[in-house]
Prior knowledge:
Elements: E1 15-16, H1 29-34, E2 39-42, E3 47-50, E4 55-58, E5 64-65, H2 71-78, E6 84-87, E7 93-97, E8 102-106, H3 118-125, E9 133-136, H4 138-144, H5 146-152, E10 159-162, H6 170-194, H7 207-218, H8 231-239, H9 243-248, H10 260-271, H11 281-299
Parallel strand pairs: 5-6
Antiparallel strand pairs: 1-10, 2-3, 3-4, 6-10, 7-8, 7-9
Helix pairs in contact: 2-11, 4-5, 6-10, 6-11, 10-11
Amino acid sequence: MDIENHLHIAAWIASEAEVETIDSYSENLSRYRDLGYTHIPIPSENKFYNLENDTMMKLDEEQIIHEETHLMDVLRLIQNKPFLLIDRRIGSYYIVTDAGEFVLPHSIGTPQDEYLKKEKVEEYYEDRIDEPFSVFTEQELREEYPEIAKSEVPVGNPYQIITLSDINDRMMKEMLYSVFAELTSQLATRIENEYPDSRELITKIGDSNVGRWKKERMSGRDVHIAEYTTLRDIMEILRSSNPHFVEACGFEAKDDIDSLRKIIDIRNHVMHPNRSLVYNRSDITNVLDAIDEAQRIISGMK
Length: 302
């Protein structure tokens, strides 16, 4: 399973950004402090104001992202950045003929699209538009054809912001849950195949899970106890299993089984709706490590 092949995008955890200009930000410092803000984006100048130490800082190119940037990339980027700024205009262009007639807007669906750059858009339309034309960004269109811009450019704030606290959003947890659930499911299936008699596993599984299994059996359902195992139960089962089975479950050796601990810790945060996933940027490293480890185990299964 490669989580990056599934749709989990930055816009899902972002909120509308309040941005300023170089001339206006100083007038609103008190208001931003009262709101508890720590940074004021000034994207028109590629800068932001740091309210924590009252300094103007450079807004790095990496901080400005496409709205469909994958959440895994968001995690990687925000490890070392105070915030990320989504610009919904990235990949948006406007086609105008040399006679000044608006033809159509062009929008890029994903940040991986080869037509993200203007020259690629120009190449794309060379054989599709019969008369000479130019490709404009929003700002270029406003300067060159203000009347066209007035009617064609969407009204509203194009910016959204992602801060450390947004990493705790439900949509981020749902992405992580999908990875950990897949890992647990695949390991449980292999355990069921290796131990067809549930009674062999009773002493290695937590009492509450054994109780749930027995209750189902008493109700007449013929279910395997592996369906009620947690990752912690699975660790105990694997520790007492033969090395060949452990390797078939995606581990290099028995010593590798303890790598499940880091996954269990992050999964516990994911499963509790009121518990934060991260409290500081070092926690993001632990989240990424847990995802990488889960995907490594899944890909190593035989």
